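Why does residue order matter? Because the sequence determines the fold. Keep that principle in mind as you read this record.
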Amino acid sequence: MGDIDDTQFEAADSGASATYPMQCSALRKNGFVMLKGRPCKIVEMSTSKTGKHGHAKVHMVGLDIFTGKKCEDICPSTHNMDVPFVKREDYQLMDISDDGFLSLMGDSGELREDLKIPDGDLGSQLKTEYDNGREILCTVLKSCGEECVIAIKNNTALEKNN
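Structure:
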């Protein structure tokens, strides 16, 4: 028996999965599911009756939680589908750098500077509110190794103190 080479273990992760299985018939509208390999929020579901050859089928339409793109899939109701773990967290906006990165502070005081201003209307609204001196809370959604700001709101708790 030779010595174990440590280099083969360097790339290991924690072993935690980004998804968990759930029976298709147990999924619900406004829940999350993996469609075409992307984490999606279910916006429409319909079940067809059991046919001559067996299973009732569930037709799902979902919106990618990061890009907003529409995805569809059909799955037998008794089969399992992957459901992504989705974490939602609010951060206080501290600053916006010149290169478009946000400086965010979490509840426990930790600082993050690795998220960019979101594209589209949300990004413009965020910049406008910040430029007007508003205290802003950014809602960050994290799933499957991706994360982005999906919503903003005025932090009224801070504005009352000023």
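The chain has two helices and eleven strands.
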